[in-house]
Amino acid sequence: MPADDPRTIRLSDYQPYSHALDRVELTFKLHPTATRVLARLHLAPNPAARTGQDLRLDGEGLRLIACAVDGQAVQPSLDATGLTLAAALLPAGAFVLETEVEIAPEGNTALEGLYMSNGMYCTQCEAEGFRKITFYPDRPDVMARFHVRIESDLPVLLSNGNPVGQGVGWAEWDDPWPKPSYLFALVAGDLRAHPGQFTTMEGRDVGLNIWVRPGDEGRCAWGMQALKASMAWDEKVYGRAYDLDIFNIVAVDDFNMGAMENKGLNIFNSKAVLASPETATDDDFARVEAIIAHEYFHNWTGNRITCRDWFQLCLKEGLTVFRDQQFSGDLRSHAVKRIEDVLMLRARQFREDGGPLAHAVRPDSFVEINNFYTATVYEKGAEVIGMLKRLVGDADYARALDLYFDRHDGQAATIEDWLKVFEDTTGRDLSQFKRWYTEAGTPRVSVAEDWADGVYTLTLAQENPATPGQAQKGAKVIPVAVGLLNPNGDEVVPTTVLELTEAKQSFAFKGLASRPVASILRGFSAPVILERSVPAAERAFLLAHDTDPFNRWEAGRGLAKDVLARMIVDGAAPGADLLDGLARLAFDEALDPAFRALALRLPGEDDMAATLHAAGHVPDPARIYHARRALHLALAERLAAGLPELELACRVPGAFSPDAAAAGKRALRLAALGLLARLDDGATARAAYAAADNMTESFGSLAILLDIGAGQAELADFAVKWQGDRLVLDKWFAVQVAAAQPDNVADVVRRLTARPDFDWKNPNRFRAVIGALSGNHAGFHHASGEGYALLADWLIKLDPLNPQTASRMSTAFESWPRYDADRQAMMRGALQRIMATTGLSRDLSEMAGRMLA
Ligand SMILES: [Zn+2]
To answer: 300: closest CA among 241, 369, 257?
Structure first.
C-alpha cells in the first residue's frame, strides 16, 4: 500500500481510548430527511490511558443541534471527522455527555450508518458506520451497554438486546451485554415476522424471528431451520449458548454485504436469507444456511469477544469462517465442503495474495478499513486456524478455545491474545507460526522423492515470495498431511502430518516393501501452492485410488489442468488418462453424486490464466476459452454412451428438499445435462427446463442452453415468469452476461444496463451485471479493451453514491500483471482513468492506487 499516503492508519500507533464508556442511552426520532438522534454517554477517564486528555468523538455528516456536559451546554470544536471537547471543559471524574444531532437517512446511498431501503429504516455500522449516526468513540475497544428508544409511526421498531417497553409510536430496547458501536443496529418498518422458538442448553427460552417485507413470508422457513441448527451446533461443538431472550433477523434488499452480526438483531441482505424451492437454487440454500450460521456464531466469536482494533479483524472473521465451514461440513459432506472452500480460496485469495493487493491476514496499516474485508482476512484467516487445529490436535484445540472464551469474554482482544491461549494450553512456542498472520503471500512448497533400501524419503522445500512492502520473509510452519499408497492401490502409510518448519527438510518412511505413491497435502492441509510435476499416469492412479477424497479430486483437477495447459499452449489433443479417469468416476455409483459433479467441473478460465502465468506463459484469454470448450466437448463425447442413463438416474422424485443428498443428485444431473447439450443441441436440457419444478433445475438448464448459444425462448419465458421478483431477476440479469460469447459480452452489458429495471443503485442488481462482466474471463479480457472500459465507467459512476461496493468490485483489475503488454496497458489505463476522477472516494482511490503501485 502507498506508504506515503497521509491518511494511513498504523497498528503500531494503537493507543487505548482516553475515556471509559459504561452506558449509552440513545433516542431516535425517525424521519426520512430529518432524523434526530439524542445520545447520553456515561463517561469517565480511562485508568488505562494517559490522564488529562481531551475528549475526541468520531462523527461524519452530522448536524449538531446541542451538546452538554452534566446538563450544562458546552461548545465543542467541530471538524469534518468529529468533535473535540478540551480537557479543561471536562469534570475530573465521571460525567454525562449529551448530544443531539440531525441526519437524513433517505439521502444515504452509501448504505453505511442509518439509511432507508424500500421505506424501511435500517443500519450498517461495521466497520465505521456508527459515526454517521451520532458523535461517538467509534472504535471496537470501547464497549458499552446500550439502551435505545425509537420513536416512529412505523409498526415494527427493533434494536439490539431485549425489548423492555413499547407503546403507540415508540419502543425501547436494552442490551445487557457491553458491545462496541459497530454491533449497534436499528430497524423500523412495515415488516412481517416468521416466528420460531429455541430453548438453550442452559434452559433459556429464546424467541426467534425472521422479519421480511409483506409477501416474503413464504421464503423464511429454511432460514429459521438453519438458525435453530446453528444454535444447537454451537452448544454441542463449542459449548456456547445464546444469551438473550430474543434473536431477530431482518431481510433488507439494499445491503452492501451478505449479512451483519449485530447483537441480537442480525441484518441480512435479502438474498442471503430468503429461500424457497421455486425461487432459490441448491447453492442458494447452502449459502443461506452457511451465512445464517456464520452470523449466529459471531455472537461468541466477535460479539462477546471482539477485536481490539480493526487490524485484528481476522480474529473474529477467520475464526467465524472456520466455524461456519466446520458446521457446513458436519451438516453436509466434509469432502465436498473442503473442495468447494479450496476452489474459492484459490480463485479469490491466491489471486489476491499473488497480485498488487496482497496483504497479511493481520495487516499493519490501512487507509480505509472497508477495503480489508477481503478473502485474505476471511478465508486465509480461516485456513490459519485450520492449520493451528491440525498442529495441536482436536483435543488441545477444544481446550484452547475453552480457555479463550473463559479468559477473554467481554473483552476486545488481539491475535497475540488468541495465540497465547494455544501456547498456554499446549506449551508450544507459536512465534514462528505467527508469521502466517503477519506476512502476506502464498508459500510455494516443492517436493523431491527418493527411494533406496526400503526407505522412502520426501524432501520438502518452501519458498515465501516477496509481496508489496514485504521483500524478506522467514520460513513458515507448514503442516503437510501425507499418505502413502502401494502400487496396487492399498494405503501403506495412513495420513500423517509432517511439520515443515525450515526452508528445506527431509522426512523418511522406513520398512516399505515397494516404492510407494505419495498423496501429498491431503485435505489441503495448508494454504500453499504445491510445486510438483506429476506424471499423468500417477495422477490417474491417485484419481482412481486415493483414500483421501480431497486429494482424489485434486488428482483429477491436476490432470485436467495439465491437459488444458497443453491444449492452450501447444494445441494438443485431450489425453486419454483424464477422460478415462473422469469416465470411471462419473459412473461410479459408490461415490457421492455431489463429489462426482465437482470432479466433472473443469478448471475455470481465470484459474487457467493464473496457472499458465505461474508456469511462465502469458495467458491468452481467447485461447483459454476455446480450449476449455473443446475439452468439455471431448469429455461429453467420451461419456456419451452413459450420459442419458446418468441424467435419468439423477432425477429426484417427490417434493423438493434442499438437503445435501438431493442437492448432490441435482448437481450431477446438471453436469450430465451440460455435457449432453454439447451432443444433442440442448434437446434434453430444453426438456428439463420445461419440466422443472424448482429453481435449481430451471435456472441450471437455462444456463446450459445459453452457454451453447441457444435458450432464447426459455430466457424470455423466465423473464415473464419472474417479472417483479427482485432476487430471481438478478439471476436472469447475471446469467446472460456470464453465458455471453466473448465477442458479445460488452453488447449484452450495454443492453442490460439500458433497461429501466437495471436499478444500479441496488448493490445486488449492480453486482448481477457488472460483477458478471468481470466474471466472464474471455469477455472481460477481450482484446478490444471494451470490458475494461465498461467496468471503469460503471465504477466511476457508482463511486460517489456507494464507494464501498465500487471499491470492492475494482479488484477485477488486480490480475493485470498476468497478461500481455496490450492488456496490461489497457487495464492500467482504466485504473489511471479512475484515479484521475475528481472527488474519488477514499475507498476507491486507495484500491486503485495500490493496484497501480
Ligand atoms: Zn463475519
So the answer is: 241
Q: H or E segment at 93?
A: none
* Cα atoms in the Cβ-side hemisphere of radius 13 Å centred on 795: 34
DSSP state of 441: S
| Active-site residue (options: 100, 295, 317, 814) | 295
Cell of 285: 440454500
| Closest listed residue to residue 381, CA positions, set 438, 343, 421 | 438
d(CA 78, CA 83): 5
Question: Cβ contacts of residue 721 below 8 Å, gap of 6+?
Answer: none
Ligand 1 centroid–CA 318 distance in Å is 8
Q: Are strands 144-151 and 19-29 parallel, antiparallel or unpaired?
A: parallel
- Indicate the DSSP class of residue 734: H
Per-residue pLDDT tens over the stretch 626-651: 999 999 999 999 999 999 999 999 99
**Exposed e or buried b for every residue in 794-806, given b needs 16+ CB within 10 A?**
bbbebbbbbbbbb
Q: How far is the CA of 58 from the centre of ligand 1 (A)?
A: 24
Ligand 1 mean position to 369 CA, how many Å?
15
Q: What is the mean pLDDT of residues 11-35?
A: 98
| Global pTM value | 0.98
Using CA atoms, how far apart are residues 767 and 496, in angstroms rounded to an integer? 43
Question: pLDDT tens-digit profile of 328-353?
Answer: 999 999 999 999 999 999 999 999 99
Give me the helix-helix angle, 695-707 and 683-691, nearest 10°: 150
88 alpha carbon to ligand 1 midpoint, in Å?
41
DSSP letter, residue 769 = I
Rounded CA separation 539/566 (Å): 16
> What is residue 5's predicted lDDT score, i.e. its pLDDT?
83
The runs of H, that is alpha helices, within 258-414 are 282-297, 313-331, 334-344, 351-353, 375, 381-392, 394-408
- Alpha-carbon distance of 156 to 190, in angstroms, equals 6
C-alpha cell recorded at residue 295: 452470523
**Residue 73, strand partner residues:** 68
Per-residue CA distances from 65 to 23, 25, 61, 90, 101 (Å): 22, 17, 13, 20, 5
Give the closest residue to 175 by CA, choosing from 302, 309, 265, 240: 265
Q: Tell me how far the alpha carbon of residue 296 lies from the centroid of ligand 1, in angstroms.
A: 9
Handedness of CA 593, 594, 598, 601 (dihedral sign): positive
Question: Cα(322) to centroid of ligand 1, in Å?
Answer: 10
Residue 174's Cβ-side half-sphere holds a number of Cα atoms within 13 Å equal to 5
Over residues 153-183, the pLDDT tens digits come to 999 999 999 999 999 999 999 999 999 999 9
Q: Which three cell numbers stand for residue 846?
A: 486507495
Give the whole-angstrom CA distance, residue 73 versus residue 277. 59
Residues around ligand 1, an ion, CB closer than 5 A = 317, 320
Helix (H) or strand (E) holding 775: helix 772-775
Tell me, in angstroms, the distance from the centre of ligand 1 to residue 248's CA. Answer: 17
Q: Tell me if residue 295 is catalytic.
A: yes
Other beta carbons within 10 Å of 480: 24
Report d(CA 472, CA 756) in Å as an integer. 53
Residue 813 is given by DSSP the state: G
Q: Which of 403, 136, 185, 180 lies closest to 310, judged by CA?
A: 180
Return all residues near 333 (Cβ < 8 A) that are at least 6 apart: 592, 594, 595, 660, 664
Contacts of 847 (CB under 8 A, 6+ apart): 357, 371, 807, 810, 811
Ligand 1 centroid – CA 784 distance (Å): 39
Q: Is the dihedral of CA 156, 160, 162, 165 positive or negative?
A: negative
One-letter amino acid of 148: V
* Angstrom distance (rounded) from CA 560 to CA 632: 11
Contact 263, 179 (CB under 8 A): yes
Alpha carbon of 525 to ligand 1 centroid (Å): 23
Ligand 1 centroid–CA 362 distance in Å is: 15
